[in-house]
Design a protein that fits this description.
Elements: H1 2-11, H2 22-25, E1 32-46, E2 53-55, E3 77-78, E4 81-82, H3 83-92, E5 96-99, E6 123-125, E7 131-133, H4 139-149, E8 152-157, H5 164-175, H6 181-188, E9 199-202, H7 215-227, E10 238-241, H8 250-257, E11 265-272, H9 289-299, H10 301-316, E12 323-331, H11 350-365, E13 372-376, E14 386-389, E15 392-395, H12 397-404, E16 412-420, E17 423-426, E18 429-432, E19 434-440, E20 446-452, E21 459-466, E22 472-478, E23 498-505, E24 508-513, E25 517-523
Parallel strand pairs: 1-21, 2-5, 2-13, 5-8, 8-9, 9-10, 10-11, 11-12, 12-13
Antiparallel strand pairs: 1-16, 3-4, 6-7, 14-15, 16-19, 17-18, 19-20, 20-25, 21-24, 22-23, 22-25, 23-24
Helix pairs in contact: 5-6, 7-8, 8-10, 9-11, 11-12
Length: 524
């Protein structure tokens, strides 16, 4: 009885509740509740489409088999790129993709990946499994793939084992319009028109696999490299410095204070681990309910990390010239059995869709500084959009969450105030049961996203609409029978969105939001 009393009290409201009225309030909370006020006249920052960016690294089956099968493959392809993967990514409207790493970037030498594919050298991928890297997918293949998908490009150059000269020559090779030897070499390799580099970052995780550097040492190297990072096609990339991770704000602080060369953004990495133990991260499918709770608590830490880094930027860059890019994020679990540990292959359940959508809502809230994020990773690695098994392909729950949120790309954030919130308590920590976001899309239509973070409880959600004349809400609902439901190659559509609609009465949208679900609706 005492446990029921404590749990019920914590779920009543954000507002204080006096003990004298507790016995009266108890019958009103048979179901968990959350209430919001949406005022469409109160607009915020633009939600940059690049918040929905992707990341693909030379890792496991992320590129080879996942994206690239070669022109002679029996798997249907266009110029060597899987047709099924291409079509799936086009439907996501992928705004930007990051390549070639990750840790792989700081051991990647661009000359290995150009020229005749039969003559390219075979290297060892020392970061991920110690397997052979054929270099069949290189500079030309990446840019062609991005063009086929319709995506902008985010290039990660080698700082760890490279040189400023190597980087400068790569940029000249890709972007030169004149008759320099490097430009002519690119043309001889089949590309007359220069490649367009939209975003450029120097190094990766310099605090770890990128060199175990201090922020001060990296900042000096960044300024040196950025000085010589020149393009020749009339367009200048957005320059990104490789920043910190977790609760460490020193990288953002040092980099923003020591800016000498062009620096448009600072990156940040954070992965959600159910256990917070890198040696035993937790299972992707056969996890207990306790790991559902710890996963939600850990993924929501993203907001505090963003807040703390933005506070540093507001101090050092009050003009707001430096963006904050979360260019690696997502859930990281123990590798699936019978898979190479270095390939980072994991399954993807409805829990991952809830993780993704909850993070989207956080990114929206801080869109004034957060201009890009890149989930790790696109295909067959970590929290992937797509899984393949030779000729087979399936879409994960995370893919469906990304597709449902497409209307938020380049939308305008709307103020959505929380009036009441149900909370879940686990081992002395609490987390809100509902994550929400609202925006006015480019077409002028209003969208609302609601996420139920509970493993097993429905939540009654009420949204009071101000300044919006609407009679119904219509969209898609993504949920599943179990908290660990997933799509398999035998049942690839076990978890997928279904149509949803609800009437709006007297300016109020009232919804019973199912457990572990993601809902995106348009107000009509």
């Amino acid at each position: 009885m005492k446990q029921f009393f404590n749990k019920t009290l914590k779920k009543l409201s954000l507002h204080s509740v006096c003990l004298a009225s507790l016995t009266i309030a108890l019958p009103a909370v048979a179901a968990d509740q959350a209430s919001f006020v949406l005022d469409v006249s109160q607009t915020g920052a633009k939600i940059n489409k690049n918040i929905y960016g992707q990341f693909t690294e030379h890792l496991g089956r992320g590129i080879y088999e996942g994206i690239w099968v070669g022109e002679d493959s029996s798997i249907p392809n266009t110029k060597g790129y899987r047709n099924d993967v291409l079509q799936a990514l086009k439907a996501l409207h992928v705004p930007v993709m990051r390549w070639p790493g990750g840790c792989f970037a700081d051991e990647y030498h661009w000359r290995d990946g150009i020229g005749d594919r039969d003559s390219r050298p075979i290297r060892v991928n020392s970061n991920w499994g110690g397997v052979e890297e054929s270099n069949q997918f290189g500079t030309h293949e990446f840019f062609e793939f991005a063009e086929l998908v319709g995506s902008e490009t985010y290039l990660n150059v080698n700082l760890g084992t490279g040189t400023a000269k190597e980087m400068a020559q790569w940029l000249e090779y890709m972007t030169s319009t004149n008759n320099s030897s490097l430009a002519q070499e690119r043309r001889a390799n089949g590309r007359d028109k220069p490649f367009k580099i939209d975003y450029l970052t120097i190094g990766n995780e310099a605090w770890g696999c990128g060199g175990n550097m201090t922020p001060e040492f990296y900042s000096h190297l960044y300024n040196q490299y950025a000085t010589f990072a020149k393009t020749y096609n009339g367009t200048v990339p957005v320059f990104v410095a490789s920043g910190g991770t977790g609760d460490d704000t020193s990288w953002t602080d040092v980099l923003s204070q020591n800016k000498k060369a062009k620096m448009d953004a600072i990156s940040f990495h954070y992965y959600t681990l159910p256990t917070n133990d890198w040696n035993a991260k937790g299972k992707s499918i056969t996890f207990p309910e306790s790991e559902w709770h710890s996963t939600m608590i850990n993924t929501l830490k993203m907001e505090k990390f963003i807040q703390d880094n933005i506070a540093v930027l507001d101090k050092n860059d009050p003009e707001g010239e430096i963006g904050f890019y979360v260019d690696e994020w997502g859930a990281w679990y123990d590798v699936e059995a019978d898979h190479n540990p270095g390939f980072l292959y994991q399954q993807n359940t409805i829990r991952d869709a809830v993780i993704a959508a909850s993070n989207f809502n956080i990114f929206h809230q801080y869109a004034e500084r957060v201009h890009m994020t890149n989930i790790a990773q696109m295909v067959n690695v970590l929290q992937a959009m797509i899984l393949t098994d030779k000729e087979k392909m399936l879409l994960t729950p995370t893919y469906h969450a990304f597709k449902m949120y497409v209307p938020f790309q380049d939308a305008t954030q709307l103020e959505l105030k929380t009036e009441q919130m149900a909370y879940e308590t686990f081992e002395g920590e609490t987390y809100p049961l509902v994550s929400a976001s609202a925006a006015k899309a480019k077409d002028g239509k209003t969208y609302v996203a609601l996420v139920n973070l509970s493993a097993k409880d429905d939540v009654e959600v009420n949204v009071d609409l101000k300044g919006q004349n609407a009679s119904r809400a219509q969209g898609q609902l993504l949920t599943a029978k179990q908290m660990n439901s997933f799509n398999s190659f035998d049942e690839p559509e076990r978890v997928k969105p279904v149509a949803f609609k609800s009437k709006i009465r007297s300016g109020k949208l009232a919804i019973k939001l199912p457990a572990h679900s993601v809902l995106v609706v348009q107000l009509k």
